[in-house]
Amino acid sequence: MRDRLNPAIKLDGILATMYDPRTLHAREVVERLYEAFGDQVFDTIVHRTVKFPDATIAAVPITEFAPTSDAADYYRTVARELVSRGNAP
Question: Which residues are 16's β-sheet partners?
Fold first, then answer.
């Protein structure tokens, strides 16, 4: 991405999304992310939930569509991680 689209882009971290811990594949992918990228991977893992497609159809952010849901909490937690890393805008 950096070479083709934006040489100045800075990667703040890698976020695992659409995670379903019931599947071996998802668990293996996250394990490989940590092995390959270590501290670059956010501690927060965004789990798959029906709330995300519902929010997309409603054309509103998950934090507005279902503000008290686990789905919204994942992204609030990622925001806190960004701030704690010193990478918040």
Answer: 45
